[in-house]
Design brief:
single chain; 73 residues; Arc Repressor Mutant, subunit A; 5 helices; 0% strand
Length: 73
């Protein structure tokens, strides 16, 4: 499933352990927008929760490695 650039950035930061508040601050968006993106991401990936969304996305995108995640930070 294809995520938008913003959804990809949100999921990447969530995967790195950032809170919604921290993600919002880093991406200069509201906390509500972060939550909205996560809802959309979970629907697109058919995930039960955030952790499941990260796991599914990692399986679908094997090149999505730790090195790539650190670039967003």
């Amino acid at each position: 499933m294809k995520l938008s650039k913003k959804e990809h950035a949100v999921l990447t930061l969530i995967a790195c352990g950032f809170t919604d508040k921290q993600v919002a601050s880093k991406l200069k968006i509201s906390i509500r927008t972060v939550q909205s993106h996560m809802t959309t991401i979970m629907l697109k990936l058919n995930a039960r929760n955030r952790v499941n969304a990260v796991v599914i996305y990692m399986k679908l995108n094997p090149k999505w490695k730790i090195e790539e995640r650190s670039v967003v930070i």
